[in-house]
Amino acid sequence: MGSTRSEYCVFMNYDREYDRLQNNRTERGAIELDLYLSRKHDDVLARSLEAGSYNKISSLAIVDAFIVEITEEQANVLRSANGVRVVEKNEVIV
Fold this sequence. Notes:
By secondary structure, this protein is an alpha+beta fold. The protein has helices at about 15-20, 25-50, 70-80; strands spanning about 5-10, 55-60, 65-70, 85-90.
């Protein structure tokens, strides 16, 4: 149990810089927000999990979250990572 990888959505805690960048409705502001979040989310993964053991699928700028393919044990590690608010398994609804 737990060695199978699944998609999880990782939601981050409130971040003042994210809030500032999200409120900049220019094209440049959108690019800066995407770059900021991508780096921020990559840093959380690099600090918390072994390199190559996960697959980050995307960052979600609208909610400061990211989708990552990980095991259940890795999800539990991320739940206690600094800056992480919630880690939820993506469920396919048919």
